[in-house]
Amino acid sequence: MPTPTTRIETDSLGAVEIPAAAYWGAHTARALENFPISNTPISRHPRLVDALAIVKQAAARANRDLGALDSTKAGWIEQACVAVRRGDHHDQFVVDVIQGGAGTSTNMNANEVVANIALELAGRPLGDYATLNPIDDVNRSQSTNDVYPTAAKIAIALALEDLLVEHVALRAAFADKGREFHDVLKVGRTQLQDAVPMTLGQEFHGFATTLGEDEDRIREVLPLLREINLGATAIGTGITADPRYASTVRAHLTELLGEQYVTAGDLIEATSDTGVFMQMSGVLKRAAVKLSKICNDLRLLSSGPQAGLGEIVLPPRQAGSSIMPGKVNPVIPEVVNQIAFAVVGHDVTVTMAAEAGQLQLNAFEPVILHSILTNVAWLAAGCRTLREHCVEGIRANVDRLDSMVRTSVGVVTALTPYIGYAAASALAKAALLTGRDVADLVVEAGLMDRERVEMLTAPERLTNSTPITASVPVVGPETATIAIASPAEADSI
Fold first, then answer.
1. Which InterPro entries is this protein grouped with (predicted)?
2. 45 in the same domain as 108
3. Are 389 and 317 in contact (CB under 8 A)?
């Protein structure tokens, strides 16, 4: 007799035909029919699948402790959750990430998969819900409205740990380059105009510092994600759950995750509130925008190689043109820029979804969660790609940097406290008009002797890389004149 290829399950709407080997059931089948939106299943976010399994495992333990579920059923459910957390059956979490119903489809998908894995472990056929039921047993003492936001917070917290690993590694790569380039002089710029000298190492150290600040902001949000509404059930009143359930399930969740989770003080408010998601999204936007700014700088600094700044050389990753031979583009910073653009767009989505919540529930948490988890995953991938394929291989174009510093009039800024702003400005203009060295003009004008000029314009003073321990007397502008090549040039100054 041939093996059946389908099985029949029923829900409140009637009978549904299910693939015989599927671990999901009727409610998931309805969602697949209703929400063919993004073609992205929730399994695309493995941390969400893990989080759902953790919540169901903690619930089974709590229900067992309170006598709401017999120990045999609780044991089957827990074994099934462990299997999911191990990575088994992730492909069975099939509903679309974008769905109506405030996440009900996701919760039911999880209930059915856990139930059918448990039935298989118990030696029972898939769909034998008389033995173990997805709603009455796996979903006991729960509602989508407390399961989904709790799983969302856990998933985001787990994903953030992944992001922090990559973010820290990228910061370390920039810091390494800062040390490598610590004595490479260059011209700093403000508003894309030449400013004063600095070192390339200082610039890259600054990149590392700004990444470190964003890591601090991310870590500050993590405790907020650990305040949950599990036990609130439908709207925060805890209907259908034992009054002790909220504290009991929270204790098991803390044990399973190894982090202290707390039950919100006002479960009515917590069930409808999405403030933590907005804050999380804002922190991710901040990190993305600042990372994008760094990538803008890398593209500018590497522009050329002949007609641009050309101060650094990025590792060549691919041919840059189908028509211009030899062209190599900064493709790695460019892809990180695009990640940042997407993060900013998703932040707008999160904001609008949070604003659209009504009364005791926000129905739009699925798009909030998808947006945030996508941002976290893309940022982690972007940090890894930028580090491995770009930052670690950056080289300084030392000859070009040296040439620009030697001909820069920005060094005259170091003399301003000693000769005054007016004289320093005239010197800068004279140097630009004549193409002569600033130090020579200062000496010829009688403002300072060469030894003093060289001391004031030494690299360590220009870049503040060593402490300045002695002052230099101010030379009054009335004691010197600045030679200009011609009357016309003098008029222009």
1. Aspartate_Ammonia-Lyase, Fumarase/histidase_N, Fumarase_C_C, Fumarate_lyase_CS, Fumarate_lyase_fam, Fumarate_lyase_N, L-Aspartase-like
2. yes
3. yes
Q: Is residue 281 part of a domain?
A: yes
Average pLDDT over all residues of the chain? 90
**Number of domains into which the chain is organized:** 3
What DSSP character marks residue 95?
S
Residue 476 reports pLDDT greater than 80: no
pLDDT digits (tens, 9 = 90+) for 427-453: 888 888 887 887 888 888 888 888 888
Kindly state whether residues 369 and 425 are assigned to the same domain. Answer: no
Distance CA 443, CA 475 (A): 12
The per-residue pLDDT for 423 is: 85
What pLDDT does 150 receive? 98
> Which of 140, 170, 191 finishes a domain?
140
332-387 tens-digit pLDDT: 999 999 999 999 999 999 999 999 999 999 999 999 999 999 999 999 999 999 99
CATH number, position 286: 1.20.200.10
Q: Which domain holds residue 425?
A: 407-492
Same domain, 151 and 205: yes
Question: Residue 132: pLDDT above 50?
Answer: yes
Q: Is the peptide bond before 36 cis (omega within 30 degrees of 0)?
A: no
For residue 150, give every residue at least 6 positions away whose Cβ sits within 8 Å of its Cβ, in sequence order, or none.
51, 55, 228, 229, 230, 253
Cβ neighbours for 32, distance < 8 A, ≥ 6 positions apart: 94, 95, 96
Q: Is residue 10 part of a domain?
A: no
Q: Which of helix, strand or coil describes residue 19?
A: strand
Top pLDDT among 463 and 75 is at 75
* Residue carrying the six token digits 């900013």: 344
Q: Average pLDDT of 33-53? A: 96
Local structure of residue 134 (DSSP, 8 states): I
77 and 181 both lie in a single domain: no
User: How crowded is residue 24: how many other Cβ atoms within 10 Å of its Cβ?
Assistant: 27
Q: Check 71, 321, 425, 492 and give the catalytic one.
A: 321
The 10 Å Cβ neighbour count of residue 420 is: 17
The span from the first CA to the last CA of the chain, in angstroms, equals: 101
* CA dihedral sign, ordered 30, 36, 37, 39: positive
Q: Are residues 222 and 189 located together in one domain of the fold?
A: yes
Statement to judge: residues 417 and 444 lie in one domain: yes
- The alpha carbon of residue 36 and the mean position of all alpha carbons in its chain are separated, in whole angstroms, by 28
Q: Is 321 an active-site residue?
A: yes
Query: From the CB of residue 71, how many other CB atoms can be counted at a distance below 10 Å?
Result: 12
Question: Same structural domain for residues 120 and 52?
Answer: yes
28 near 36, Cβ under 8 Å?
no
